[in-house]
Structures are given as C-alpha cells and as structure tokens.
C-alpha cells in the first residue's frame, strides 16, 4: 500500500480510487480475522475508527474529500500495516 501511495495525487481520481478500494479491502480482511487476535492488537476504539473509514470509502465515497482521504491514508497506512503485522505475528506464534 505504501508503494502505491507514493504515486497517488488527490487530483488523479483513478489512482486514488484504486488505493482507497485496496485500503477498504485490506480493512475487510482484518475484519474477518479471529476477533481474539484482532482485539489483542487493535483496541476496540481504534477498530471502530478503522471500520468507520472503510464504511466511508464503501458507502459514501462520492462525498469524501479526496485531499483529506489521501492525507489520512498517507498518515495512517504505516500504522495499519504495523497492526496487521502484529496480528500475523500472533497467528504465526499460535497465540
């Protein structure tokens, strides 16, 4: 995701749309993870925020400010990646 964000410009709708849909898909995948593993790595309040972003992308994308979306994606993608890595590490250890 980080590699794609380097190519994204808020005025390039096609690339931003693709990045946003990839992010929403990634959040969906995290949502399908074992709740115990997810909760061990992501606090419930942070998870609500993450799901809220996914829902805005999926259900109200036409009303999302592209510049704000890009700014948030660029700022938060590393944290999301670290959370996913933490979940995968727990699963790999059988925790």
Summarize the structure.
The protein has 95 residues and is mostly helical.
Overall pLDDT: 84
Secondary structure tally, helices: 5
User: Radius of gyration, rounded?
Assistant: 14 Å
Taken from the alpha-carbon principal axes, the silhouette is globular
Cα distance spanning the termini: 26 Å
Helicity level: over 70%
Biggest beta sheet summary: none
Oligomer: single chain
Instruction: Find the structural class using helix and strand composition.
Output: mainly alpha
Poorly predicted sequence stretches spanning 5 or more consecutive residues: none
Question: Beta-sheet strand percentage?
Answer: under 5%
Overview of this protein structure:
With 95 residues, the chain is mainly alpha-helical. Helices cover 77% and strands 0% of the residues. The protein contains 5 helices and no strands. It has helices at 2-5, 13-31, 35-41, 44-59, 66-92. α2 (13-31) crosses α4 and α3 (35-41) packs across α5 (66-92). The longest helix has 27 residues, at 66-92. The two termini are 26 Å apart.
Question: Which features characterize this protein?
Answer:
77% helix; 95 residues; mainly alpha
List the helices and strands and how they pair.
Blueprint: H1 2-5, H2 13-31, H3 35-41, H4 44-59, H5 66-92
């Amino acid at each position: 995701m980080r590699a794609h964000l380097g190519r994204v410009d808020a005025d390039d709708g096609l690339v931003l749309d693709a990045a946003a849909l990839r992010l929403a898909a990634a959040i969906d995948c995290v949502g399908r993870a074992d709740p115990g593993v997810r909760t061990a790595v992501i606090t419930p309040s942070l998870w609500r925020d993450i799901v809220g972003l996914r829902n805005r992308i999926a259900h109200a994308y036409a009303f999302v400010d592209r510049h704000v979306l890009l700014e948030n994606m660029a700022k938060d993608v590393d944290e999301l990646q670290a959370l996913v890595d933490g979940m995968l590490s727990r699963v790999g250890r059988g925790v």
